[in-house]
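[Meeting: bench + compute handoff]

Bench side (C.D.) handed over the final construct sequence. Compute side (W.E.) agreed to return the predicted structure before the next meeting so the bench team could plan truncations. Sequence as handed over:
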Amino acid sequence: MFTALLAASVALGCATLQQPADNVTSLLPVGNSPAPVPLTHFPSTLHAVVWRNWEVAPAERVAAALGCTKRQVEAIGRSMGLSGPPKIPADTVRRLYLTTIRRNWHLLPYDQLLKLLDWTPEKLAFTLKEDDFLYIK
């Protein structure tokens, strides 16, 4: 999945994505990693990430996670018929963290998920372990 996201990001002008850093992955749980469910109804994983986050994360955060600009994220969204991007209050973004994690779990490596959430590795590790047993699910 990472390779598909990398190829799409380069083709659409986003910066080259990198493998997760060792210091991030050492703090976060690693377990059974089944292949993600294919998202054949999207042209690329990049499009799926933009679609799934359009109304739960600000375009700036999506852009930071993908290594591209807000303008590029907005263009990708508009190319899929999305209007906006919507204005998402900071409090709403903060409360939607479980939705954000679930929508992106099989799409983004930890480094990019951390940028999307604007969290530290420690906060994500704690959340995965303690918040509703999220990692086990």
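W.E. noted at the follow-up: The chain has a mean pLDDT of 82. C.D. will use this when planning the next construct.
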